[in-house]
TrEMBL record:
Coiled coil: none annotated. CDD domains: CLECT. Gene3D superfamilies: Mannose-Binding Protein A, subunit A. PROSITE patterns: C_TYPE_LECTIN_2. It comes from the Eukaryota. InterPro entries: C-type_lectin-like (IPR001304), C-type_lectin-like/link_sf (IPR016186), CTDL_fold (IPR016187). This is C-type lectin domain-containing protein. It comes from Volvox carteri f. nagariensis. SMART domains: CLECT.
Amino acid sequence: MHLSALGQGMDVIYDDSNFKLLLSRQRTSYRNAHEACKWFGGVLASPSSRTKQDRLTKALAEAPSSTITSDFLWIGGYQALASVGNAQAWIWSSNDRYGFTDWIRDGRFQGTSTCLSFRRLSDLPNRWSTKAQCRETLSFVCQVINLEDGTLS
């Protein structure tokens, strides 16, 4: 896969007619990663289905390892605060339905974070973790919808 640089420490690791995946070469907190993705017109990557996660996993596997600065990457899942009549729930920053899950079963990779990180290495059968606290600095992946003539593709 051809890797193209966008400047600002971001590389395009996947690009089709519908959307792009952008990989950060910089490490930052979850909140700053969220804001950076908004600046590029997107959101943190939301692997809300097996198909979307497989696409993300493949793009990361094909990206040069020198462009990834951490084993875990921020993605767009976060645990929303409880509200009256509703318990805390995991939500995707893309507003996709939260149904598919891929939590790492090894307890060493789980913690109390309300921000979701994604293990880029394929040495475990699952990828999602809550070990990194939201203020910790990790690389991150954004997804950006491609626009054509002012309409969504």
